[in-house]
Amino acid sequence: MPEAPNHKKAQHPQPDPELQNEGEGSRSAANRYDEGATRTAADPKHVKEAAEKARRALEGPEGKELREAEERGKKHQHG
Predict the structure, then answer these.
(1) Which of 4, 11, 51, 79 is deepest in the core (most CB within 10 A)?
(2) Which residue range forms the structural domain that includes residue 39?
(3) 22: in domain
(4) Domain for residue 40, yes or no?
(5) Is residue 63 part of a domain?
């Protein structure tokens, strides 16, 4: 008697949850960003370097443009 064909379903590996498309507003990407931003802001050396870089930019050739952009941003604040 012939054997019945093997009709087992093909085993598909489960996708890595880290790589799944979450659509607009990805929570995992937002969490990774928040964690990185928190670690960066907690580093006093990084904060000091960023402040110094901003000071040099404001005092340099792009300073006027940066201050104008800041004023435009303030005009659009909600709150």
Answers:
(1) 51
(2) 31-75
(3) no
(4) yes
(5) yes
Map residue 53 onto helix, strand or coil.
Answer: helix
CA nearest 57: which of 67, 71, 48, 47?
Answer: 67
What is d(CA 56, CA 62) in angstroms, rounded to the nearest whole number?
A: 9
Number of domains in the chain: 1
Q: In b/e form, how buried is each residue of 58-76, taking b as 16+ CB within 10 angstroms?
A: eeeeeeeeeeeeeeeeeee
Mean pLDDT along residues 29-49: 92
- Determine if the pTM surpasses 0.70: no
The one-letter amino acid code at 5 reads: P
- Determine the Cα–Cα distance for residues 30 and 47; give it in Å rounded to an integer: 21
